[in-house]
Design goal:
It is built from four helices and six strands, in the order H-E-E-H-H-E-E-E-H-E. It is an alpha+beta fold. A hairpin with a 2-residue loop joins strand 1 and strand 2. Bound molecules: zinc ion. Zinc ion (ZN) binds next to helix 2.
Length: 145
């Protein structure tokens, strides 16, 4: 078991910024068959409940983004991703703010993690990988929405 590189400061920031995650499977049509080729994990957080807050240059938003990015960068270190994925890309959507209808159009910043799977591995590893993602994010205090 690896020790968590994410300190308690990150965990308290996760709580402060109400960070949560969303999961989007990525499918491809291969020989007429729909197959899972990877997934996207979105880490989303915000620092204010002010619904009119829409300033891409806001330093606090930038800080939220840097926390999300640190978590995204730590994930492959603390899971067995390295053995299982083909590519691991992070898009921090810098200078972008998203409005979330699910949160009453609250503005938030987000970081996307794209994981593309290595088909040479076993059948059930997608679920294993997803379980690892869940475990890791749970340990950071981040819940799925
Ligand atoms: Zn802000």
């Amino acid at each position: 078991m690896t020790t968590s590189a994410l300190n308690s400061q990150v965990q308290s920031l996760v709580a402060e910024y109400s960070v949560f995650w969303q999961f989007w499977p990525q499918f491809e049509q291969i020989h007429g068959e729909r197959r899972l080729v990877g997934f996207e994990v979105e880490l989303i957080g915000f620092h204010t409940s002010d619904l009119n807050h829409l300033d891409p240059a806001c330093p606090a938003c930038r800080h939220v983004r840097s926390v999300l990015l640190a978590i995204a960068l730590a994930m492959p270190r603390e899971t067995s991703f390295r053995r299982n994925y083909l590519t691991y890309n992070i898009d921090s959507h810098s200078n972008s703010i998203v409005c979330l209808p699910a949160l009453g159009n609250r503005s938030a910043v987000w970081v996307s993690i794209y994981v593309f799977l290595n088909r040479a591995n076993g059948q059930s590893f997608e679920t294993d990988l997803l379980n690892e993602v869940k475990t890791f994010l749970n340990r950071c205090g981040i819940h799925q929405r």
